[in-house]
């Protein structure tokens, strides 16, 4: 047997089979420290607005300024663009400007949850309750959302434009909300024989809001009125203000360490705030001015197809990059800018489906993401015959694996489940349509899209490290 081949085989086996806790044994403290910072992002960023608010505030602390205030752009300039409080683009201008293209990481900070309807508030006399009607956002298993503690977060914009931030249920001193489920004693006909998506329907996702009526037995809607009175006192809002609100119902649970060894995290919205955090933190932590201009993009609306003005599909992304290119390039032109994009490289940093011991049959185990084996690469996503996928170039994969190996970043490569099992997508195809070399990469998540999702702290760290070496050292 050829010695080099044998060595290569050993390296591959080591990469595929060794826990990242071993391959990063000198950095486990750093990984655990990073996870403490990450948990703060999860707790303060329970919806896309709150996450962007924190990201922007931390960006300012890290020396980033709004593009309009930055003046002349040069190597080392740190700037950001905020889009309607739900989408953020940050950049560190490189020594080479944009001559060799941008190095981009794009993550999304929206997550599946229950949105409050425009006319949500109802009272039910028979159960003596008032409840809020919701409309689920993104891919949820509706039965997950019943009989768990819930919080109400977001904003109400009053008719005069006043913004009221709503956050009830996240502070341990707050009350919480819930959606009642049917008791097992009476659930035989109404639930037990049904298929999973019909066990709880969208129209049953009604959040129990209040119970005590106002002190007037003559009034018919006394409970609803009492709830409105509370909301009016706290936020100055009336019933009609619900229609100019963005209120999201999320689990009333802060991020917690998971496991005896505290090696994992259980929290809401880790798809894809884990990569959003890793990406952002990697950009903040750049010690020296990078060669290329590095860009972190935090998108909204990925879970509903990336449309809307704050989604990856909006022209905001293109517009901001053109402003940067215009600021650092002599003889800027549209054609030149398109060439710059064509020479750019992006990581679509989004999570992967980690194998779990209860449901191994949906994975091809040799091509599945495993928790604790480092950051995951997906050459393609999609469903059936890779439909809807970006499918990255082999050349790009070669450059990327070289980069990760050189910098001791544990990585793995997978498909999203067995070939005909299901599928999904990311923002990758929306980046690559500009000609940007694009590949999917991110943290393995167990129980993705459940109210609380599971990650490994070492994988969160590996994701951060991958983003960081990509920003610092990727040459393409
Ligand atoms: Mn995602
Ligand atoms: Mn998702």
Descriptive notes:
This protein is an alpha/beta fold and 476 residues long. It has 2 domains: 3-111 and 268-473, 3-Layer(aba) Sandwich (Aminopeptidase), CATH 3.40.630.10; 113-251, Aminopeptidase i, Domain 2, CATH 2.30.250. 30% of the residues lie in helices and 24% in strands. It has helices spanning 3-17, 20-23, 28-44, 48-61, 188-192, 196-199, 222-235, 270-284, 316-328, 334-342, 394-406, 428-432, 457-473; strands at residues 65-66, 78-83, 87-92, 102-108, 113-124, 129-137, 150-157, 163-168, 206-210, 245-251, 256-258, 264-267, 293-299, 345-349, 352-353, 375-378, 382-383, 411-413, 423-424, 437-442, 444-445, 453-456. The strands form 5 sheets. Strands 1-2-3-13-4-14-20-16-18 form a 9-stranded mixed beta sheet, sandwiched between helices. A 6-stranded antiparallel beta sheet has the order 8-7-10-5-6-9. The chain has a 3-stranded antiparallel beta sheet with strand order 11-12-22. Helix 8 packs across helix 13 (457-473). The model has no long low-confidence stretch (mean pLDDT 96). Bound molecules: manganese (II) ion (MN) (2 copies). One manganese (II) ion binds next to helix 8.
